[in-house]
Amino acid sequence: MPDPAPEPPVRSAIERMLRPRSIAIVGASPSPGSLGAGLLANLRRFDFRGDIHLVNAGRSEIDGRACLSSTLALPAGVDCAALAIPGAGVLDAVAGCARQGVGGVIIMQPGSRRPDLKVARCRPSLRASPATTAWRSRAPTAWGISTMWTGFR
């Protein structure tokens, strides 16, 4: 009997953030100029070839792509989630990401150059949560990650 195929190597948290095979855009939007629309446009423009999951509780689809109602509806194991939502929704969105096994979260702040105080105030809760202690995350006021060779910007 042949030996079973070896288990694929486990990808590190940082590899999942920098070379994602799947991305969720939480706060996806069809509105030109919005952060959620810009994230989706960049993934398309730079030919991201992985799975893209859109999350927007108020929409069933954006540009022909289905939208999920919350991060709890994400498929298990999405590599990276970009949160383009107001601070009031961050803790719930992050909790849903953690429950679904998302590899890491980038918290972005739409519509302002100034940090959202609600996001800043939730940092201690995010750090203390048992669900998120193994995560790598980019905090508010950071405008994300760019890895030119993978199409993820």
What's this, in brief?
The chain is α/β, with parallel strands linked by helices. It is 25% helix and 18% strand.
Q: What would you say this structure looks like, in words?
A:
Strands 3-4-2-1-5-6-7 form a seven-stranded mixed sheet, sandwiched between helices. The protein is built from four helices and seven strands. It is globular and about 55 Å long. With 153 residues, the protein is α/β, with parallel strands linked by helices. The chain has helices at residues 13-18, 35-45, 90-99, 117-128; strands spanning 22-26, 51-55, 61-62, 65-68, 80-84, 105-108, 137-138. The chain has one domain (13-138): Rossmann fold (3-Layer(aba) Sandwich).
The number of domains: 1
- Percentage of residues in helical conformation: 25-40%
Q: Enumerate the spans where pLDDT stays under 50 for 5 or more consecutive residues.
A: none
Question: Shape, please?
Answer: globular
CATH superfamily: NAD(P)-binding Rossmann-like Domain
Distance between the termini: 46 Å
CATH class: Alpha Beta
Q: Could you say which structural class the secondary elements and strand pairing correspond to?
A: alpha/beta
Q: Compute the average pLDDT.
A: 78
| Biggest sheet character | 7 strands, mixed
- How large, in whole angstroms, is the Cα Rg? 16 Å
**Order of strands side by side in the largest beta sheet?**
3-4-2-1-5-6-7
Would you report the number of β strands? 7
* CATH topology-level name: Rossmann fold
**Can you count the helices?**
4
| Strand fraction | 15-25%
